[in-house]
Amino acid sequence: MTIAVLLAVLLTAMPLAAQVSDDGTVLDDEFGFGMVEIEGDSSIGLEPIEPIDAVANVWMLSVACLALLTALPGAALLVASTAPLIDMPRVLAVLGAVAASLVLVWVGYGYSLAYGGNADGENFSPWIGNAQYVLLADARPRFDETSGETRYPTRDGVATLTHATYRGMLFVLAGVLLSTAVVERFSPLAVVLFTVAWASVVGCPLLHWTWNSGVLAHLGGHARIAGVSTGVIDSAGGLPVFFAVGISGLVAMFVTRGRCNATASPAIGNQWGRSFVAFAGTWLFFVGMCGIVGRSNTAGHGQAAVAVMNTILAAAAGCLGWCAVESVRQTLHRAAPPRSGRFLGGTPAGAVVAGIAAIASGAVYLDVPWAMATALAAGLITAIVGSRAAAGRDPWNAAALLAALAIGGLVGVVGTGVFATRNVAGTAAATGRLGVLENGPLLSQHLAALIVVAIYAGIASAVLAKFAQLLSRPPAPPTDGSVDPM
Fold first, then answer.
1. What is the pLDDT of residue 443?
2. What are the distances in angstroms from CA 154 to CA 38, 51, 160, 395?
3. 130 within some domain
4. Helix, strand or coil for residue 351?
């Protein structure tokens, strides 16, 4: 379905884009879609609206479809593969309910909390957005009686609705990944309520802090010391999405720890089935993330090429990290049984997910060799941690996926603080020196942001998880005596 939507966007929007001149004026309307000029006119009493960059608008719409591919079915399959094969349909149904709920939250008030307000406006808050986009009020097109034209509000050169669609898919992705922590512990209603509460209390503020000139934003943000920007830079969600979700999920699992339904030594048929589902989820997650980081440059120019290349190399470097760790393990423990059927945890896909999460922060700020080094470090750490944690039991569980996200996000944020360079970012995207290699101050700022996000997300998740647990029935104790990996 997602692929069909993507093709539809490309086939319909690209011909229309070719009919729009550089100044936003329609040159031809042979398709009969009634496209009009979208430039504002102050003479009719309305504020001028920035013309829509047709190419950038199509590019972001296409990426939004890839972002949906990352969340559903990519991340959903990854989460479902943590459950026994027989429980996967139920888990996928719950994740569908979670995604649907988050879409409604995003349209209702989530986009407004995350992106409401202008940093140059009088009533702007660096902590949380305002009510500007409640029910997408200021994002919807409107017809002007005086000019006889339909006016489309814009943001960053694209239609505001396009921007809301793309960012909304990242919002849904975060919620689906977070559901890993509780989907087998809580009732479906409790899972939805926990995820929606986390997205409202933690997710929206973090997006505002990082990407809407909030307290953590580096460019044009309010995090300043002696007039010098002291915030973070983040391309595609390394800090506010992957690291925050990983930490929040692990904390939620810890405070609600108890028995789980997974067996300690699943049958080989069940294991291979889960491995196939996990492989499919990992592949879709990778394809979607290529689009998400590619959108880091709105118009899809040179920085987009760097971002996509860095993502491809990050996945490969993460897998290479697992290969190195597994080779050493087999050399040191030749008598150890082969990991037949095992796919995640201390195995390839966990390292691949960590590598992709690691590049999300600095996709458009890291040169290719340093992007590979960052992802390789994330893959190595994830493989080592996963290999130790998996000793004696099923290596693929919810904790393994959340740990891969947390480790990848952590390594990526630190790596961006060390290796970010103006050679890639350019003077238009960043002012002054960036990473440690340029004698820039970014590393200390990123470390401080990691501490802030970890504390805030961890405490909020612990409180919300305990409340959600009260609404859920206690899980039935397993018949084989297995215990929760946390």
1. 87
2. 9, 7, 5, 47
3. yes
4. helix
Task: Quote the domain boundaries for residue 127.
Answer: 52-143+153-471
What's the CATH code of the domain at 219? Answer: 1.10.3430.10
Domain presence at residue 38: no
pLDDT of residue 259: 41
Helix (H) or strand (E) holding 453: helix 442-471
Q: DSSP label at 243? A: I
Residue 394 is predicted with a pLDDT of 56
Residue appearing with tokens 């810890």 = 254
- Burial of 103: CB neighbours in 10 Å, binned 0-12, 13-18, 19+: middle
pTM: 0.80
In this predicted model, what pLDDT tens digit does every residue of 357-381 receive, in sequence order?
999 888 888 888 999 999 999 988 8
Which tokens is 273 given? Answer: 């089935």
Contact 299, 55 (CB under 8 A): yes
d(Cα 177, Cα 485) in Å, to the nearest integer? 18
Q: What pLDDT score does 201 carry?
A: 94
When divided into structural domains, the chain yields a total of 1
Does a structural domain hold residue 26?
Answer: no
Task: Round to whole Å and give the CA distance between 137 and 148.
Answer: 21
Count of CB atoms situated within 10 Å of the CB of 472 = 18
Of 285, 275, 274, 280, nearest to 314 (Cα)?
285
DSSP symbol at 201: I
- 217 forms bridges with which residues in the sheet? 232
The conformation of residue 478, written as its DSSP 8-state character, comes to P
Position 347 scores a pLDDT of 61
Q: Are strands 224-225 and 228-229 parallel, antiparallel or unpaired?
A: antiparallel
CB 95 within 8 A of CB 183: yes
Apex CA 370: angle with CA 79 and CA 415, to 5°?
A: 60
From its phi and psi, is residue 148 left (phi > 0), alpha (psi between -120 and 50) or beta?
Answer: left
The phi and psi torsions of 348 (rounded to 5 degrees) equal -55, -50
Positive/negative CA dihedral, 203, 204, 209, 213 = positive
Residues of the chain with pLDDT under 70: 1-50, 121, 218-230, 258-272, 296-301, 333-347, 387-396, 425-432, 473-486
Residue 37 falls within a domain, yes or no? no
- Span 59-70, pLDDT tens digits: 888 888 888 888
- Answer yes or no: are the C-beta atoms of 431 and 438 closer than 8 Å: no
CA–CA dist 229, 334 (Å, integer): 53
Instruction: Give the Cα-Cα-Cα angle 133, 137, 140 (nearest 5 degrees).
Output: 115
